[in-house]
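Usage

Read records sequentially. Each one opens with the input sequence:
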Amino acid sequence: MTGVSVGIGRAIAERLALDGYEIHGTYLTHADQAQELATQLPGLTLHRVDLVAPDGPQRLVDELPDGPWQALVNNAGIALEEPLDHFDAAIWQRTLAINLLAPVALARALESRLVDGSVVNIASTDARIGSYSSAAYAASKAALVSATRSLANVLARSRIRVNAVSPGWIDTQMTTLPELAAEVAPLQRIGRPSEVADAVAWLVGPEATFVTGSDIVVDGGFGNAEPVLRREAGM
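and closes with the structure output:
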């Protein structure tokens, strides 16, 4: 899986290790956290890789064992703040490279090792809304959800299931304004990384063998809530 050092990726690695999986995990920054995790999870092998580099995904593929594999989890991602007064092409190019191109490239390159297995792409509920200072992130996640459906069609020839998990406001280092998000969400809190990891574990496990091309939203109902209608109802 990609992006295991911190946050949701770390929680997924911990959950999959608990379920008995051996894990090959990537990191680029947060090296200390990655090494700490590797000491906690003896079944974790680390790979430092820059997925923005044109040859980054292929270099990772070349380092990985032949398989067979049970799953690929594409978790690595970035959300860069954009200027509101002009278009920054470099931000869009970097964001799309990590959040969209790398997951698709890895899924395609690893098809022969994932026969009868599963691919899970970590998207975001931002894919469903308009953004302000992170339009590239929202667009990349929307494209990843669409690519998930297309990959599910293509990789079905190898009996590979491809799904997405879209977290909402989750308690990680990327989360801003958690109190405001909790106020809006019907469950009145933000999510835990472990709750996203639970969804991933289900998708890669034996209980989801007829699920492909789906996007599971893990947001505590945040996407269902419309603040004006809620106030209108007196809630």
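Summary fields computed downstream for this record:
- The longest strand covers residues 161-167.
- The domain at 58-189+197-232 is CATH 3.40.50.720 (Rossmann fold).
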